[in-house]
Amino acid sequence: MMTGTTGATRTKETKRPTGPGFPDVGKEVVGVLAGLSLFGGTLAMGIPFLFAAGAGAVAFAAGYTLVPRRRTAAEILLAPEVTQQMLDEFLSRGRTALARVRALEPRLQGSPLAAKVSGLTDTLQRILDNCEKDPQDVRSARSLPFYMEKIEEYVSSYATLVEAGKGDPDVRRRLEATEAMIVRAATKFEEMHRAMLENDLRALEARAGALSMEFGEEDSPPAEAGSRP
Question: Which residues, 6 or more positions from 165, have their beta carbon under 8 angstroms from its beta carbon?
C-alpha cells in the first residue's frame, strides 16, 4: 500500500476492538450457571438446603456482576469518530443503493451510458470494500451513500428517457447531459478510491467535497450526514 505524498496521512490502521468476555453468553445465563453449580455442589456436600440456596444466590449475583455487559454497536469504536454502528449503516445504505443501480443496467443496454455505469459500479464496490477493511475512511467519505443514491436516481431517470425514445431533441439533450455528469462523477469516485489506497485523508475529503459541486447545491447531503463535525 502506497503512502500519499501530499495531504494528511492516516495513522496506523486501527484494529477493531474485540468484545468483552463471553461475547455470546448473556450475563443472566452466566449468573444462573454459577448459582446452580454452587447450589448443587453444596447439596452434594451435605449442607442444608437453605444454606445451599443462599450460597447459590450469592454465586448468581457474583457471576452476574463480574461478567461485563456486551457493548452495543454504537459503543464499539473502530476508528476516530467511527463506531461499528456508523460503519454498518454506511455499508448497508451504500450497498443498497449500489444494488439498485446494478438492477438498472439491463435497461441501459445499447445506450452510451451502459459501459460507463458498469465501470462506475465496479469502482463504488471497491470503495465500499475498502471502507469495510479500513473504517477510518468512513470519517472522510461519510457522504458517499448519499451520492450513490443520487447516482441511482440519475441512472433511473436516464433509463426511463431511453425507453421513451430519443427522437425528441429535448430528450436527447437531457440524455447527453446525464451521460456527461455520470462520466465526471465516475472520475471523482475513482479519485476517491485512489486517495483511499494512498492513505491520503486530506485528498479523500477534498474528492468527497467535490462531489457536492458536481451534483449541485440542491443535491448536497444534510449537514449531519455529509460533513464532519
Answer: 171
15: left (phi over 0), alpha (psi -120 to 50) or beta: beta
Into how many domains does the chain fold?
2
User: What Cα–Cα distance (Å) separates residue 4 from each residue in 123, 154, 183, 196, 210?
Assistant: 20, 33, 25, 9, 19
List all residues 6 or more positions away from 96 whose beta carbon is below 8 Å from its beta carbon: none
Residues 123-180 have pLDDT tens digits of: 999 999 999 999 989 988 889 999 999 999 999 999 998 888 767 888 889 999 999 9
Same domain? For 105 and 213 the reply is yes
Grid coordinates of 152: 441511482
**pLDDT for 49-100, tens place per residue?**
444 455 445 544 554 455 565 768 677 877 778 889 999 999 999 999 999 9
pLDDT averaged over every residue in the chain: 74
Phi-psi region of 81 (alpha: psi -120 to 50; beta: other; left: phi over 0): left
> Taking Cα atoms as reference points, which of 154, 140, 155, 150 lies closest to residue 191?
140
| Amino acid, res. 122 | D
Q: Is 163 found in the same domain as 62?
A: no
Closest CA to 207 of 11, 6, 2: 6
13 within a domain of the structure (yes/no): no
Between 17-21, 28-32, 132-136, 213-217, the lowest mean confidence (pLDDT) is in 17-21
Place of cell 452434594: 44
d(CA 90, CA 195) in angstroms, rounded, equals 19
| Residue entry with cell 438492477 | 103
